[in-house]
Amino acid sequence: MSAPPPTPVGKRPVVTPGRIVAGLCLFAPFVGILWVDSYARVEPKLIGIPFFYWYQMLWVLISALLTVIAYRIVRREEAARSAEKSGEAL
Q1: Rg (Cα) of the chain, in Å, rounded?
Q2: pTM greater than the 0.85 cutoff
Q3: What is the dihedral of CA 80, 78, 86, 12, to 10 degrees?
Q4: CA-to-CA distance for 14 and 18, rounded, in angstroms?
Q5: What share of the chain is helix, strand, coil (3-state, %, to 5)?
Q6: What is the pLDDT of residues 6-19, one digit of tens each?
Q7: Where are the membrane-spanning stretches (predicted)?
Q8: pLDDT tens per residue, range 48-75
Q9: Whole-angstrom Cα distance, residue 62 to residue 67?
Q10: Residue 68 and residue 29 in contact, taking contact as beta carbons nearer than 8 Å
């Protein structure tokens, strides 16, 4: 295996509060689904569906929403960063 190419000066990965929020948005579904003891039960039922199943289906929707939020946060930061760089170039 070859070593990764060196990162050019000024091209370091940037950790910002927005990216931390985006990361938390992507991490939350893992916690919600992998913490099985929190939802391993039958009650309360929702239209006859045990809690175990409708909780997991709810996380599908929540995960999609959180992914969209994370995507928009990162895209907004990238756009602001590229606008800042193009302003510097002028």
Answers
A1: 20
A2: no
A3: 120
A4: 10
A5: 65, 0, 30
A6: 656 556 667 888 89
A7: 20-40, 52-74
A8: 889 888 899 999 999 999 999 999 999 9
A9: 9
A10: no
Structure tokens that stand for 29 in this block = 């579904």
Q: What type of residue sits at position 66?
A: L
Cα 5 from Cα 30, distance rounded (Å): 32
Please, what's the largest Cα pairwise distance for the chain?
A: 63
Half-sphere exposure of 6 (CA within 13 A, CB side): 3
Are 67 and 25 in contact by the 8 Å Cβ rule? The answer is yes
What does the block give as tokens for 81? 């960063």
Q: Is 61 within 8 Å of 3 (Cβ atoms)?
A: no
Q: And the tokens for 71? A: 């995507």
Handedness of CA 45, 48, 49, 55 (dihedral sign): negative
